[in-house]
Amino acid sequence: MKYWFRYLLFALLLLVACGGGEEAVLEVPTPVVAATAVPDTSDTPLPTATSNIAPTATLSGQVATPTLAPTPTLMPTETAVSVPQTNPPLETISQFPMLGHGVVFIADGSLKMWGQGTQELKTLLSGGPSSATRSFQTEFVVGDISRFVASDEAKQLLALKITDRTDGGDAGISYTYDLLWVDLLNGNSRAVATGLRGNVDFALSNDGKHAIYVTQRPSSPNSEQYAITLLETGAGSLPRAIADCQLPCGSFAWHPDNQNVVWADQQGLWLLNLSGQPTRLVANTFAAEPADVLVHAPESWARNGRFLLIWRGRYEGGDRAVLDVTNSRVLELPDSFVYANPTITEATWMDDSRLLVMRPNGSNPLEGSPSIEIWRVPDSGSELVREAAQTLTTLRGFPTGAKHLPDGRFGFALSHPNDGQMSGLYALKGINDTLTRLTGIPPANAYYEADVQWLPDSTGAMIANQDGHVVLALAAADTLFDLTPLVGQWGRSFHWLPRFGLSNS
C-alpha cells in the first residue's frame, strides 16, 4: 500500500480519537448474489452505505480459484552466480547500457522512458523548470509529474501533473492536478481529468482498459465531498461517478480479472464489479477505546483472485493480514506489526498465491540476522500456515526488495551502513538452500528505504536511494553503473515494461 495513504489513515485515527465517537458494529456477513448489469447512473444519486454490513463478495467473471494445497518451493532453472569476494567499483557512465526491457520513471519532474532494446532516453511528459528546487517526493514544482501508474500488461499509463501550487502557511502546501493518459507506443497523451485537488489517488486496470480515480464533487467545490470515478480509457469515453467516498479514500487495487477493483475509505474496504454496484467487504471500527480502533486498506491481490493482502491500521501502528473475499475470513500475518521503527516486514505474493515474507531482526537489525519465510492461506481456519522459514545467520542489516524471481530463486537487497561487504544483492535457490551474494551495492543509511526494482530477467536490479542516487547493479558485471547523471535529478518510481515495439517518433 502507498505510504501516503497510511499517513492519511493515521490522521483520521487521531481525529476520531480526539472527537470520541461510537463503535461501529460489524454484522454477520450475508451472501451476495452475483452482480448484474445496471443502467447508467450518471444522472442519479450516488450510492452510499446504509449499514455496517460486510457481505461475502461474489466476483463475477473472476479467475478460477485453485485448491491451495502445499506446493514445493520452485527451483531455479540456472546455476547461481558465484559469490563476489570484493565490491565492484562504482562507475559513472555517459551512455545507458543496452537492456531488453524498457523502464519508465520520474526525474527532473518529468516522466521519462529508457530502453526497449535501445540506449535512447525519451521524455514522455515534460516537468517544470529544470532549474527549480525539488526534494524527494515531498515538494514539487508547477508543471512536474508527481506520480504515475502503469499496468503490467498494458502499453499505457496514467500520470499526475501539477498545474497549480498554493502555500497555505501552517496548513502546508496544496496542489492542483491534471490526470493524463499516455500511450507508450507513440508517446501521445491526453487529459483524463482536470482540476483535481487534495491527495488524489488513481489506478489503471492490468489490461489498460479502465481507469479509476478520486474526484471532488463538482456540487461542493469548497467542501470535502469526494467521489470514486470510473473511466474507459478508449477515446471518446466519458467518466462516470460510481460512489461517494469519505476521506481518506483511494489505495485502489485491481483484481487480476480486470473486472473488479477494491479501494478503501473512512468506512472500510469496498469492492466494485464493473457490471454492478460497490459492495463493502470489511467495515472499519472506531471506538472510544484506542485498542479497539481498526481501519483497513488494500495492498495487492493474489494471482488466484481470491486473497487480498491488506493493511490494518490501529490507533498507533498497524499490521498486515489476508482477506479471503469468498467468505470474509481475515487472517493475520504474525509478527508484522509496525510502529515507529525501521524494522518493517515485507510481504509480497508469489505466483502460486503464497506469501513471501522478509523480516529484519526485530531487536537490532544492524547486529541481528534477517529471515525469509513462505506462508500459505489454508482452505479453512483463521490462521496462516508457515510452510518454510530460514534465518540468514551470515547476514546483518536491512533487507528490502524481496521477490520470487522468474528463474525460481528468491532475491532481495541488503544494506548495512557500516559494512560495505554486507550490502548487496542476494539470491536463494530455495528456503534452507544456498545463499548467494550476486553483487555489492552502495550502502545506504541505517533507515534503508531504497526502491529496488529487479530486472525482469533476474540478472540485477535498479536501485534508487532517497539521496537521489540511481544505481544499476548487474550480477554478471564487474562494475556498478551510476546512472544519476543520465537519469536526472531525483530519479524515482522505476517501473519495468513488457517487451513491445516502439515508434521512432
The CATH architecture designation is: 7 Propeller
User: At the fourth CATH level, what is the homologous superfamily?
Assistant: Prolyl oligopeptidase, N-terminal domain
Distance between the termini: 36 Å
Low-confidence runs: 10-57, 60-85
Shape: globular
State the secondary-structure class. mainly beta
Can you tell me the CATH topology?
Methylamine Dehydrogenase, Chain H
Helical fraction: under 10%
Rg: 23 Å
Work out the number of β strands: 33
Can you describe what's shown?
With 505 residues, the protein is mostly beta strands. The protein has a single domain, classed as Methylamine Dehydrogenase, Chain H, CATH 2.130.10.120. The protein is built from two helices and 33 strands. It has a five-stranded mixed sheet with strand order 1-32-31-30-29. A hairpin with a 6-residue loop joins strand 27 (424-428) and strand 28 (435-440).
Q: What's the short version?
A:
The protein has helices at 3-19, 484-487; strands at residues 90-92, 103-107, 110-114, 121-125, 145-150, 156-167, 173-183, 189-197, 202-204, 210-216, 226-232, 240-245, 250-254, 260-265, 268-273, 279-283, 295-301, 307-313, 318-324, 329-332, 346-349, 355-359, 371-376, 385-391, 398-404, 410-415, 424-428, 435-440, 451-454, 460-464, 470-474, 480-482, 492-496. With 505 residues, it is mainly beta. It has a single domain (3-21, 62-126, 136-496), classed as Prolyl oligopeptidase, N-terminal domain (Methylamine Dehydrogenase, Chain H).
